[in-house]
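Quarterly update from the structural biology core.
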Amino acid sequence: MRRSEPRRTSRRPTIFTGYDTLKGMEPIDVAIRDESIRLGQFLKLANLVETGGLAKELIAEGQVSVNGEVDTRRGKVLRPGDVVSVAGMSARVATADEVDDDYFDEATADDDFDPEKWRNL
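Predicted structure, tokenized:
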């Protein structure tokens, strides 16, 4: 039996919502390797959008702001310190030196840890 209507399989991608708990809070720091990064690339790196196509669309629609001002240039060059906002979520461009990714906690560290004991479990 044939269907009379075409089947819709494609959906418009949604804005990444993993940072819902951070809405309205201080922007998260996202480290970049080089001295600069383009706006579309940064949106994906910071997980503010799921795809580059969605980044392009949101930027073109004026839904993305850089340092508080709407910017419609996907190729805008961002440098450390710039803050990008979309859908109530914000991320700050940072260098690798600025981001504190050291999760070592001396208070809970086990000095008697033996890696050989846990190897190949």
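The chain is about 15% helix and 20% strand.
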